[in-house]
Amino acid sequence: MKQTVVPAFILLLTLAACGGASTNQAKTEEKKEAAVATGTAYAIDTAATSVQWRATHKGGFAPRFGAIKVVDGSLNVENGAVTGGSFDVNLNTLTTDPASVTEKDKKSTDLDGHLKSPDFFDAAKYPTAKFVITGVAPYDSTKEKSLLPGATNLISGNLTLKDSTLNITFPAQITVGENDVTANAKFVIDRTAWGINYKTEGSPENWVISKDVEIGFSLKAAKK
């Protein structure tokens, strides 16, 4: 059974707007051409796929975390390796774990609405975040660090949030089986790279929300 890397991102993705995280920030560059998807198509199993986000508020003293759903997508596999693919995340499914909101005067659902509002993702206007694979390469632990042990490859892809698209590269652990593909990853993005700021970029309100957001995913795709 061969291993390679898969995107995910996802996404995902896609969860900046709340603030800080850890190290291992994904390499961020300008948008690139999508990879040519060759081989057999595998449909992402949205019920078996999960994306988590973690960030901090109040200068790092109020961790926030939650989940968001991948709603559509596929991967292509040829000779035991992922060659391309894409997937969509529905920002209207973003939720905050109630355990991460400890203030007496706040509820997790209040934060959900805040993140989906024009203050951050503006999910009514931009309901979909998208990740499109642009390249897959072997993972070299001497050159790249991974938050998740056992990384096998580097995946690069265009991540679209709101009306901005940038290319990110991160380590991932993926296994390609005869009938399915599984992948896991954990990395950090800077929300401000996509222009996601609260109020204005240099405002005190934006400052107390860390720019770094940790994304974690567990993805599964099955042969069509």
Tell me what the structure shows:
The protein has 2 helices and 11 strands. With 224 residues, the chain is mainly beta. The chain has one domain: Lipid/polyisoprenoid-binding, YceI-like (Lipocalin, Beta Barrel), CATH 2.40.128.110. Strands 2, 3, 4, 5, 6, 7, 8, 9, 10 and 11 form a 10-stranded antiparallel sheet that branches. A hairpin with a 4-residue loop joins β4 and β5 (62-78). The longest helix is centred in the middle third of the chain and has 9 residues, at 108-116. It is globular, with a radius of gyration of 17 Å. Mean pLDDT is 85; it is low at 1-22. This is YceI family protein. It comes from Chitinophaga tropicalis. Pfam families: YceI. Residues 1-26 form the signal peptide.
Kindly summarize this structure in a few lines.
It comes from Chitinophaga tropicalis. InterPro entries: Lipid/polyisoprenoid-bd_YceI (IPR007372), TTHA0802/YceI-like_sf (IPR036761). The protein is mainly beta.
